[in-house]
Write a structure and sequence with these properties.
The protein has 567 residues and is of the alpha/beta class. Helices cover 28% and strands 21% of the residues. The protein has 2 domains: 343 residues, Glycosidases (TIM Barrel, Alpha-Beta Barrel); 183 residues, Rossmann fold. The chain has 16 helices and 26 strands. The chain is globular, with a radius of gyration of 23 Å.
């Protein structure tokens, strides 16, 4: 988010799509095909950088060439009154319906504006309780929802604006630090979690009361997936960007399994200040991953200047990345039908934690970003130690346990200090990799129940809290199913804790065992769980029906070779 802001302020990128006064005409044959209702996978694209005729809202011929099913449409704020915007949004969704496309309205624009007034004086981003959050006025939202083409509203990086107290505003207005969903300062961790959940649920309820089908959140950090999913939001996790694609996926997948939500993937070309910062080959690898990991919907961020161009004779010419997306949509998916979704996933390794929003941020954690167009001037941007966005809720050894668990189950590939390249001081000198080797992983929250853990062979109990019901279910699975559990003394049975002193110790319990440790990234623990973590160059997913998908990772970590068993 901040890199995007700095790039735009430095003049590197256009703020919106490119609108042409003179443009090619699209005949009926060029219209996008209507969506097959029996599909279990949909591809889309963020429209930033799209080139279209005034009043057309998007380039239908380009979307047809790309083969996408839907657009993530970046709303750029009101141009007139509320009534004017309601009419404009009705025209927008009607245009999408006419062309057989679905649309999700992305409201990231609200993250960048301290105030946003329509011509009738209504502020679209200032909310009661000193919260900063974009909301469509009721007449506008009702207009959007008149057409079935409107899938819903997307809150882009909502978890980011809560955790960093709207950092994009702070960069423009030093001293301004506004949360989006709830003010957690002064609360304990559980109260902060509940307050953020209530803020998210209130937003969902408000949108759905006015006819919105889906409320989607796009996450730049691998946190608050479970909180938001429980509140009724659909998580869209980020692939590529500065992320480990499959680590983010495991976090979102667990949330969607637990709380019965769709799973969306955003395949993001941003890489710090660079856009596009990822190759066509890496895009292909990430499309393969989203598809075979079982996502319901995946979309690419964004069109930019690297997806297509308009030739002198007004034809669409796909560029390298656009060709990759089109080939995947039009050839690969039809030729490789997927007989499952993530709902059929049977995990082998589970990280179970109270999500306190720790991802690796802290007092001395920073990334280096360009501050001028030429890239010759740089600054260190420090990630404040504000869990849930609270000034007084901070990281701890307990909150960091799950980072160490990720390090262990990825053969040491993921850094034990942080999950993101945005922690530049930890990932310095390590080129970005999309994929880390891991064997059928998932992340559940501290309230997960037995039904989701039946196939798990290795579980890590991490973080500040664990519900009594979850502990009871885990204990039962140890004794009856042979589950192996890694935990600190906090969550282990007292009969074993009384014998434990330090280090990593194993205690048999029925068919399974408990491994009590004081270091979830320690050598002794790695040795104890080695047989569970698979190969150091593969990602594995198991699905019902004894189906297995094996993804062999390229040496640079950005491409995949897919093998399937029992298909």
């Amino acid at each position: 988010m901040f890199c995007k802001l700095l790039s735009i302020l430095n003049g590197k990128l256009p703020v919106t799509g490119i609108v042409f006064g003179v443009f090619l005409f699209v005949n009926a044959a060029a219209q996008v095909n209507h969506i097959n209702q029996n599909k279990n996978f949909y591809l889309g694209i963020d429209n930033s950088g799209d080139q279209f005729k005034p009043g057309e809202f998007f380039n239908a011929e380009a979307m047809d060439a790309l083969g996408v099913d839907f657009l993530v449409y970046k709303y750029r704020g009101p141009k007139g009154t509320i009534e004017d915007e309601a009419k404009r949004m009705e025209q927008l969704v009607n245009r999408f319906e006419e062309k057989g496309l679905k649309v999700v309205i992305n409201v990231e624009t609200g993250n960048w504006a301290l105030d946003m007034f329509s011509k009738d004086g209504h502020n679209w981003v200032k909310q009661p309780g000193n919260l900063h959050l974009f909301k469509f006025p009721e007449p506008v939202l009702k207009s959007l929802n008149k057409s079935p083409a409107a899938w819903g509203i997307q809150y882009d990086e909502l978890e980011h604006s809560q955790l960093t107290r709207n950092l994009t505003l702070t960069l423009q207005h030093p001293g301004v630090e506004l949360v989006s969903l709830a003010e957690p300062t002064g609360m304990d961790f559980k109260s902060a979690d509940q307050a953020v959940y209530e803020g998210a649920k209130s937003l969902v309820d408000e949108c759905k009361s006015l006819g919105t089908q889906k409320v989607v959140t796009e996450h730049v950090w691998p946190v608050l997936f479970h909180n938001f999913a429980r509140a009724g939001m659909i998580p869209a996790y980020k692939q590529m960007k500065e992320n480990w694609s499959n680590v983010w996926a495991a976090c979102a997948m667990g949330a969607c399994m637990q709380y019965d939500q769709e799973l969306w993937s955003c395949i993001d070309f941003w890489n710090h200040n660079t856009f596009p910062g990822h190759s066509a080959e890496e895009l292909w690898g990430n499309l393969l991953f989203a598809y075979w990991a079982g996502a319901d919907k995946a979309y690419v961020e964004a069109i930019g200047r690297h997806t297509y161009e308009i030739t002198d004779d007004n034809n669409i010419k796909l560029l390298e990345r656009g060709e990759a997306l089109s080939r995947f949509a039009k050839e690969y998916v039809p030729e490789n039908p997927r007989p499952f979704t993530f709902r059929d996933f049977e995990p082998e390794i589970a990280i179970i934690r109270f999500d306190d929003t720790e991802w690796g941020q802290g007092e001395n954690v920073y990334c280096t970003v360009d501050t001028n167009k030429e890239g010759t001037e740089k600054m260190k941007l420090y990630w404040k130690d504000w869990l849930f966005g609270a000034y007084d809720l901070n990281t701890s050894p307990e909150s960091e346990e799950w980072l160490k668990a990720w390090h262990t189950i990825t053969h040491g590939m993921v850094k034990e200090e942080a999950l993101s390249w945005n922690a530049g001081n930890y990932y310095d000198g390590m080129p970005h990799r999309s994929f880390a080797p891991v064997n059928a992983p998932v992340v559940f929250d501290d309230n997960v129940t037995k039904e989701y853990l039946e196939t798990v062979k290795l579980a890590f109990l991490c973080g500040l809290f664990m519900s009594e019901n979850t502990l009871a279910d885990v204990s039962s699975l140890v004794k009856e199913n042979g589950l192996v559990v890694v935990t600190s003394p906090r969550f282990a049975p007292e009969k074993f804790v009384s014998k434990y002193t330090s280090g990593t110790k194993e205690y048999k319990d029925g068919k399974g065992k408990w491994i009590i440790t004081d270091d979830m990234a320690g050598k002794d623990l790695k040795k104890a769980v080695k047989r569970f973590i698979g190969k150091d160059d593969k990602i594995v997913y198991n699905f019902k029906g004894d189906r297995k998908v094996i993804m062999k990772i390229s040496p640079d970590g950005n491409e995949l070779k897919i093998s399937k068993i029992n298909f």
